[in-house]
Write the structure tokens for this entry.
Amino acid sequence: IFVLGIETSCDETAAAIVKNGREIVANVVASQMESHQRFGGVVPEIASRHHVEQITLVLEETMKQANMDVSEIDAIAVTEGPGLVGALLIGVNAAKALAFAHRIPLVGVHHIAGHIYANQLVQDMKFPLLALVVSGGHTELIYMKEHGVFEVIGETRDDAAGEAYDKVARALQLPYPGGPHIDRLAKQGKPTIDLPRAWLEEGSYDFSFSGLKSAVINTLHNAKQRGETILPEDMAASFQTSVVEVLVGKTIQAAAHYDVKQILLAGGVAANEGLRTQLQKQVEQLPEVELVIPPLSLCTDNAAMIAAAGTVLFQQGKRATMALNANPSLLL
Ligand code: ATP
Ligand code: MG
Ligand code: FE
């Protein structure tokens, strides 16, 4: 079966066609990053406007890449939330219009379910599994007993991992989004600066990054007042080491405790090389556990992941009506 995925929750206008939930037939992403860069973050009003301009072009390009006609599509999967309401609405309305005009079944998808199902485009899921979701707005450990069932066993109590990356990058005067810049700098520096690790209470799988972020900002500020220089690459390496240590440490603990068959990495921060490398290394402690990491292009926002998740939901019989609406705070 062929599923058309549509994703407009944030600053990427994306559409994709996925065959049998596994195979990418077409995958188009129009990023608006440049328009938001000078504001140092995503401006919701600008995002909506770009989506309106891009959505038809992106859908046309997707059909062209696939060399398919809309009549060959078995279902349309669209991100219904969470995200920016004005941005989500553009995708939801485009999906509804297509579904209505061509009488194609419609499925609403949770954006984070999409990030997790990006892994299904790499490797078949084996249950039970544990997904570490690290993105611009989320940091969660999610336990899955079966397809489509998500149990959040840990989450951030303050900033998301990506948010912390972006804020620390800003403090280091790096462009937005800062994650990739810190990742690159970290490789050139040494983790010589003492920064906290937020392990929280014994046995907790929750995360916290705001203390670490404040420690970075304070350390930079104090050094500046004393006329000392801190190499940005050393700060990047120190920050990244702290983030990765806690993310990987808690993931390994949870994977052992829940006796999972697979660990999946998901979300934009999954593109982080330090995280990928450390997780790969640490998973070796658990020889029965298979680690799946999507390629970089499937870590950040895309519609192939929405189509992959939508395929499973469609096969489980889930359908949306024409009353489908954007839900900015949709729960998983
Ligand atoms: P959400 O999925 O929670 O709604 P989002 O869709 O905005 O949020 P993603 O697109 O999944 O988030 O991820 C974007 C985030 O990933 C940004 O914060 C960005 O800095 C971060 N990021 C991207 N590449 C890297 C990298 N190599 N290292 C660290 N962070 C990265
Ligand atoms: Mg984005
Ligand atoms: Fe995302």
User: Anything to note?
Assistant: Residues 9-10, 83, 111, 115, 135-138, 162, 165-166, 177-180, 183, 267-269, 271-272, 300-301 surround adenosine-5'-triphosphate (ligand 1) (CB under 6 Å).
